[in-house]
Amino acid sequence: MNGLALSEAYFLAVGAPMIEEKFPLHRDRIAAGLVGDGSECYGFDDEISRDHDWGPGFCLWLTDDDYRAIGESLRREIDNLPREFAGLAARRDSHWGAGRTGVFEIGAFYARFIGFDHVPDTLQEWRAIPEENLAAATNGRVFTDPAGEFSAFRQRLIEFYPEDVRLKKIAARCMAMAQSGQYNYHRCLRRGEYVAARLAEARFISDAISIIFLLNRQYKPFYKWMHRALKPLPVLGQTMHRLLDELAAEDGFEMPEDAQARKIRLIEEACRLVIAELKRQGLSDAAGDFLLDHGPRVQAGIQDDRLRAMDVWLE
Fold first, then answer.
1. Which residues are 112's β-sheet partners?
2. pTM value?
3. What is the pLDDT of residues 172-204, one digit of tens each?
4. For position 283, what pLDDT does the model report?
5. Share above pLDDT 70 across residues of the chain, in percent, rounded to a whole number
6. Mean pLDDT, the chain, as a whole number?
7. Is the pLDDT assigned to residue 95 strictly greater than 70?
8. Under a CB-based contact definition with an 8 Å cutoff, are residues 157 and 138 in contact?
9. What is the chain written as a DSSP string?
């Protein structure tokens, strides 16, 4: 049983009956689920994940009024629930992983991830939130939400960045991918600067994954999971997953020239795929296979004057 399935089964077996018995007047106002940090919230947990911050548990989300009315008493009741469930040991919270399950006020829960207790309503607020934080705020599963307030907030975030913000990020990723992958990587190899080459390759991979998520209008998760999460994306997900896997699998830099050339070809292939998708989505009409030429064309499509005038490299 993976963590999401375990969490839902645990809630249905012990959480929902407790709410029904102890809080009947609020049962139609309490949302439950598992969302946030942790591999289980992405469905990526395995046997290795079970050594910490994994086990029976769930989140309950309340409006501000309800949290002030029953938050503490609801927390006490959760603390009294059985710790072990379905033959699995109690959840082991680490020092840094504590507080991922329990009772939360809706605005405060989202503020932990996005920095705001409201859905961002300006371009600057949206730009201030790291992509992985938005991924964590919208992952997992909502088991029940009779009042709909938690899910309404969640759905607004899932609808993705305003288009101007998406374009600004895509433009900046084009510039970064060109700089690290198409330009600096090969130059570092020629100089024998293998640490610099490794850093250029890593930056290229990170920005390539980010741009694929942006082209799919989905948030890129925490770095440990972003390559794995790439594979099911409908737009270039599986193809880019394979290319980057091959790029990373070419081991070491003290290698024959043909191996170095293969890594450079993989980088160029990834860039050509991105450029083709930019054109398919009508985001760039620039010619050529150098992504540096496409970033400014993407940025030119931004409607907001102030954002369009910003340095194309920034984001």
1. none
2. 0.93
3. 999 999 999 999 999 998 898 989 999 999 999
4. 98
5. 94
6. 93
7. no
8. yes
9. --HHHHHHHHIIIIIHHHHHHH-TTTTTT-EEEE-SSSGGGGT---GGGGGSS-SS--EEEE-HHHHHHHHHHHHHHHHTS-S-BTTBPPP---TTTTTSSEEEEHHHHHHHHHS-SS---SHHHHHTS-HHHHHHHT-SEEEE-SS-HHHHHHHHHHT-S-HHHHHHHHHHHHHHHIIIIIIIHHHHHHHT-HHHHHHHHHHHHHHHHHHHHHHTT-----HHHHHHHHTT-TTTHHHHHHHHHHHHHS--SS--HHHHHHHHHHHHHHHHHHHHHHHHTTS----SS-GGGTHHHHHHT--SHHHHTS-TT--
Q: Report the alpha-carbon distance of residue 185 to residue 187 in Å, rounded.
A: 6
User: Tokens 């948030």 map to which residue?
Assistant: 219
Residue 150 has pLDDT above 90, yes or no: yes
